[in-house]
Amino acid sequence: MTSESQETVFSGWSVLVIDDEPDSLRIAELLLKRYGAQVLTALNGHEGLLAAQIHLPQLIIADLSMPGMDGWQMLAALQQDTRLRTIPVVALTAHAMHGDRERTLAAGFRSYLTKPLKPRTFLQDFLLVLQDIPELSTLLKGN
Amino acid sequence: MDRSGRYSLSLPGRFNSLNQRLIVWFLLTALAPLALSSWLNSRSTYQLMERELHDCQQEIARLVGQQMHEFVENVTLNLHQVGYIAFQASQTLDSWLPDFVASGQFFRLLRIIGVDGQEVARVSAAGLADTRYLQDVSAEEIYFRPLRGETYFSTVRMNDGQPRIDIAVPITENSTLLGIIAAQITLERPWQVVTAIQLGANGQAYLLDRRGNLITYRGLIPTTIAPSFAPLPPVREIIAGAAESQVYIYDDHLGNEVLGSAVLVANTDWILVIERPAAEAYDALWQARNNELLVALLMLGLVLVLAWLLARQITHPLETRRAAARRIESGDLASSIPVRGADEIADVAQAFNAMALRLDMRIREINEKNAALRLATIRTEEAMRLKDEFLAVMSHELRTPLNAILGYTGIMLMETALPEKEQQMIERIEANGERLLALITEMLDLSRIEAQRWHIVPAPLLLRAVIGRLYNELAALAQEKKLDFTVSIAEDVPQTVYLDEDALTKILGNLLINAFKFTDFGAVQLEVQAQQQQVLFFVRDTGRGIPIHLQEVIFERFRQADSSSTRAHGGLGLGLSIVRHLCSAMRGSVRVESVVGQGSTFVVTLPLNLLALVETV
């Protein structure tokens, strides 16, 4: 992949990122935008749920621990909604605690990303995550 | 409760034994001389009494023997006189001799024998016998014994229910033998004398002739069926020639044990035996001995009582003090032992009281200190909890802004539009940020291990997936340094291992990050092998290597192979220390093989199934 094609690898995608830490949220937004995605952001589960209902994003990336409605509760709420149920949700975990990975997958998250997101390896990491979500990886440019 | 119970059982036992020992010793002290003197006294008394008994026995025998002798002397003397008269007046025998016999006490039958052995006359109480009945006795002892000048005694025979004997004496005048006179004598008199002799309740006397045949016996025994008395020890002694025997103890012809002695009746062949049952004879002696024994027993009892009183005198105060000591032992330190008198036992009591007082004070002190310690412990625990909480919060709070800094700088650096100077400065910001993050992570890992908050939880792991994730995380580092990074997993390594994922990731991550840090050219390789029940991880690099003398040191805290490298490579040097901790926490080990200039290989050995290992323990 050339540097130019990298910058447009996610063009046309709409991704919703939910995180209560503004800087973390901002970095995720910047990185996704850098690779061409259209990014929506929310600071908690309620906002995220609302944004998802309005914009129907193709992918949701949600932090697990948030004040108010956390990642788990939000996922449960999404699964109650027939329109939103099909949107893949990726968990954003602060650090891999015991069983976190297994629990997230068991709860219905399609994959997970480890925080903090590292700009240098972000693309690689994200592509790995997409391998867990075959219906999205077909949308990738160049496939 | 149990403890004091055990003591209360054993202590009285020990005191009792002291009591018993004292009693035994007192008894020995008092009884040894007592027993010795009683024994000696009893023995000499017994011997004396026994000798007296024997003397008495012999004296009686002697006296009776004397009496018998006198009787025989008397008889022979009479016979001599009668014989002399008879030979002087042989023509008128019939006028007086029958009267003499009839009036006499002893003579039943008189026979006058001539020197030629022809009976001259035979006289009984009935009168002179007819000459037709006169016999020739020249071949008989009754004739030739007196002929030799001896007095003849026949054997005793029974006649009319009375023991009779023939006595014959020679009658001489001026040394010329006139003839022999023989008389049949009833032994009624000596028999009465002898049988009348009673020694004690059941003692008796009897006469024997020289051959040991019975002459007289209290119960009338026909001489023909009476046993020979010759084997009896005193009789044997007389037959052997003694005039008087010792006193013997032997079984008589009836089988009774008797005390007996014998004398030879002077001028006769008669043996006088005196016997009395030994039991009866010694009865007095044994009585005396029993009396002495009784006295000794009484004294023993007295001594026993005295010894017991004496022992009690000593142990009783000890026992009362022991009771007090027990109270002290059971915790009642305020109770004291009564002090009476000023003897050694009182000293002991005082020492006990002093000790109890000291103990009381010490225990109070200890209790106070314990309370203080408990308080301190609570405070310490609280402080530890606060510290952990603080660290957890700090971890999050420090990392959040740092992650933001690193995130933004990373994104900035990916922009190519920056001027070179700014680019360099932002790279420095990123490098320092990474270093700071590494420091914080190491510190937190170590504090988790130190506080034993790193709980190893073995769980089934898909080993290849875990290593794949690790590879993905670290591939960028390899790329940055342009190092060749490969992973190879042997086919026989099981799909699932049972380990703590967090710890395993940390171990391999730290080793690989170190490898990247210290390797400038070449390759870093992770190789996984299975061996028996273990899984082996080899982390190889082509770095500068570690000198032999430092190969152990690097696993210690805050140590790196080259102290100056800390600054160049970041971190506190805790990485390997954490690796070793986690390896041993999972029942495994880590070691290094290295040649300076060629590279290093870290070998981690872990059980394939920690879960099974933990469960079996």
Instruction: Give the total of domains of chain A.
Output: 1
Helix content of chain B: 40-55%
Largest β sheet strand count, sense and barrel closure of chain A: 5 strands, parallel
Low-confidence stretches of chain A: none
Count of runs of 4 or more consecutive helical residues of chain B:
13
Rg of chain A, Å, rounded: 14 Å
Mean pLDDT of chain B: 81
The CATH architecture of the largest domain in chain B:
2-Layer Sandwich
What order do the helices and strands of chain A follow? HEHEHEHEHEHH
The total count of helices of chain A amounts to: 7
Net shape of chain A: globular
Shape of chain B: rod-shaped
What name goes with the CATH superfamily of the largest domain in chain B? Histidine kinase-like ATPase, C-terminal domain
CATH architectural grouping of chain A:
3-Layer(aba) Sandwich
**CATH class descriptor of chain A:** Alpha Beta
Beginning-to-end CA distance, first to last residue of chain A: 12 Å
The structural domain count of chain B equals 4
- Alpha-beta classification of chain B: alpha+beta
Helix content bin of chain A: 40-55%
For the CA atoms, what is the radius of gyration of chain B? Answer: 67 Å
**CATH fold description of chain A:** Rossmann fold
Describe the protein.
The complex is a heterodimer of chains A (about 140) and B (about 625). Chain A is α/β, with parallel strands linked by helices and about 140 residues long. Chain A has 7 helices and 5 strands; from the N terminus they run αβαβαβαβαβαα. Chain A is globular, with a radius of gyration of 14 Å. With about 625 residues, chain B is α+β, with helices and mostly antiparallel strands. Chain B has 4 domains: about 70-185, PAS domain (Beta-Lactamase), CATH 3.30.450; about 190-280, PAS domain (Beta-Lactamase), CATH 3.30.450; about 370-455, Helix Hairpins; about 455-615, Histidine kinase-like ATPase, C-terminal domain (Heat Shock Protein 90, 2-Layer Sandwich). In chain B, strand 10 and strand 11 form a beta hairpin. Chain B starts with a helix and ends with a helix. The chains are: A alpha/beta (about 140), B alpha+beta (about 625). The interface of A and B includes residues 24, 96 and 128 of A.
